[in-house]
Amino acid sequence: MAVTILMPALSPTMTEGTLARWLKKEGEVVAAGEVIAEIETDKATMELEAIEEGVLGRILVTDGTSEVAVNTPIAILVEEGESVPEQSGNSASQPLSGKNISSSVEKPAQPVQSVQQQEPEWGETREMTVREALRDTMVEELRRDQDVFLMGEEVAEYQGAYKVSQGLLDEFGARRVIDMPISEHGFTGMAVGAALTGLKPIVEFMTMNFALQAIDHIINSAAKTRYMSGGQVSCPIVFRGPNGAAARVGAQHSQCFASWYAHVPGLKVVVPWSAADAKGLLKAAIRDPNPVIVLENEILYGQKFEAPISEDFVLPIGKAKIEREGKDVTLVAFSIMVGVALEAAELLAKEGIDAEVINLRSVRPLDKETIIASVRKTNHIVSVEEGWPVAGIGAEICTIAVEEAFDWLDAPPVRVCGLDIPLPYAANLEKLALPKPEWIVDAVRKQFGG
Amino acid sequence: MTLKNKASKTGSVLTSEQKEQALRDMLLVRRFEEKAGQLYGMGLIGGFCHLYIGQEAVVVGIGLVMKQGDRSITSYRDHGQMLVAGMTPRGVMAELTGRSGGYSHGKGGSMHMFSREKEFYGGHGIVGAQVSIGTGLAFASKYRDEDSVSIVYFGDGAVNQGQVYESFNLAALLKLPCLYVIENNRYGMGTSVERASASKDLSQNGSPWGIPSLKVDGMNVEAVYGAAKTAMDHCRSGKGPFLLEMETYRYRGHSMSDPAKYRPRSEVDDMRSHHDPIEMLKSEMLQEGYTEEAFKALDKEIKEIVQDSAIFAQESPLPDEKELWTDILVEA
Question: How many domains does chain A have?
């Protein structure tokens, strides 16, 4: 049966091409796979191979013809002895429903993401460090679910580089508390593979700085697989470790990654401050069927807070907490900066300014509702973060305030951020580079014309 | 503990039933890919599309050894792996055309398809990423104390990625049931192995970690089968990973827009004429009593299956626009 050969699309962007030359003449026999013509695309000169054997019955587009649109019939291939039909074409090789892609002007609206779940009752509490809260949470979740395991550098025999996994090897053994070689790219990919089968790894990075070696797997492999698989394969995994500046460890070990990960659809990113945050958010992360990043903070590990002792204290991811109510200005902070913002609020109180402090707890999803409601009350907003200013979390928060509460604002939103420099080592310089309560007080004063 | 790395010369290890299965599977992959190439030419498939034509014996020979529960994962040259894993030609082709009937409802495309049911874990677009992820599939088998083996395919282009060696170390250290398969088709995109790798024998690339290996004639389905059997028995018995280097060849360019000027046409023609995996198996079978008529009937049947998948892939509706916002996260 005669087959019409169409001008092929030979690159992702080709819409037309030049038929440079035919390598076969009319009447010549061609074998499957044999090159019959050369076609110039927008990128290169490509060889056109015959898909089936036959005789080149008729050439419809001659050598040197340019601007031949994709899908234009260029030749007819017939079987040996067969005559060339008058009507060129074999309907089977025509597209049945070609590029009839409707492009509606209105795009589907993003579903409203609103976390309705509320913070559970605390019940009985005790004072504990953030480190204890994280460790106890992992112990409880490892007991609760056999599919949960912890892996990372020095998590087992060394008892954790920062002692967060102290005692876990003794209770759960080397099968579930697994020391990894210094091999972030490899073991993160391996953990993602395990998660794709339904296991629930907790991957500890000694610090989040080292996760840069593995960020391809966090983003391309963990965050995108569910979408790319049409919902078939999800990735229940936790990536956790200390984030941000520690103390005098220099530029490569001192960086906040909140805005990096908050940027990525398919991830959830939590940023605990207190022991209760650490417990409730890590529990939520481990039980969540999605990839969740837990950005901890080394300096907070040793700080003590009252926290619930309940084994079922699970905080909703995406819900901020108002740590201090106030009526004059909204301070939005996360992780270690919540404490700094609370100190600033005390200083402001002495000046008669009543600050509300929001602890974000999560930067993806971001609790816009709480931020907007607060701004509509206080009419002033200052964001506070340790990370760099450009395209940071503060930029996002200030934009939200402008986009969704513009008419309530009495002053432009202000960002307080770490300086836009690699973090220096020298004690005096490091101190100058990171936000402190006085910076926040200054930012607020400016808003009130001070 | 490294085995001799010469091609497995185990003779005729396939039964006549297995040979017929191999012929059918290779022909399905070949015809499917030819059709995909056609649909690409017609503008029905977009973006990147990497065809498997020429390499069929690799995935088909290994497929004959795989058991229920074994997992597999590969790069973006993945259509052959999916068909051999038992995924339907309709579902794969409809994903290529970006339609709702595709395995990922049109949201993945040629490079990103998965099937939990068939234990196929993609379809990955970042060269080498699947090697670490595949090592994790094997980790899961060991963690759950399962009998399964994970087959991790990657090309000669991926062997220069650092994470491949991190994975080798982890798999050997943890004794994971992981079969690494290097599909050495001689070119990583347009760069020949000689121009990219200081290692002259890729089958030895796992030797620092004590990973046993075989170099295999990847154009010969029987040799692939024999080597895969040795390798998978090793993995399944708890001895850790195994590495196979398949010497194979892709007839088409790296992707659809590759003019393949980096290799002489005569090289392609020689492989096609003298080393074609389908022709070699067919001629062997003809000597053993298989008939040309039976082959023609098989080819016709396969072409009908492929044509059906192509029609399905064109008639299946485009994904609903609401799909934009689904499957990003598992909703609690």
Answer: 3
Asked if B134 is an interface residue toward chain A (Cβ–Cβ < 8 A), one would say: yes
Residue range(s) defining the domain that contains residue A153 = 125-308
ipTM: 0.95
Counting the structural domains of chain B, the total is 1
User: Cβ–Cβ of A35/B37 closer than 8 Å?
Assistant: no
Q: What distance in Å separates the CA atoms of residue A2 and residue A79, rounded to the nearest whole number?
A: 7
Q: Name residue A327's amino acid.
A: K
Nearest residue on chain B to A183, alpha-carbon basis? B166
C-alpha angle with apex B223: B221 to B227, nearest 5 degrees? 115
Candidates A253, A311, A343, A404; catalytic one: A253
Residue B285's closest CA among B7, B56, B23?
Answer: B23
Q: How far is B46 from chain A (nearest CA, A)?
A: 6
Q: State the Cα–Cα distance between residues B82 and B59, nearest whole angstrom.
A: 9
* Residue of chain B whose Cα is closest to the Cα of A104: B321
Domain hosting residue B182, numbered range: 16-314
In a domain, A98, yes or no: no
Segment A127-173, tens digit of pLDDT: 999 999 999 999 999 999 999 999 999 999 999 999 999 999 999 99
Q: Is A116 within a domain?
A: no
In a domain, A53, yes or no: yes
Kindly list the strands in the beta sheet with A3-6, ordered across the sheet, starting from the edge strand earlier in the chain: A3-6, A73-78, A54-59, A29-30
Quick one: A220 and A364 in the same domain?
Answer: no
Do A248 and A384 belong together in one domain?
no
Query: A253 catalytic, yes or no?
Result: yes
Same domain, A287 and A350: no
pTM tops 0.90 = yes
Q: Is residue B104 part of a domain?
A: yes
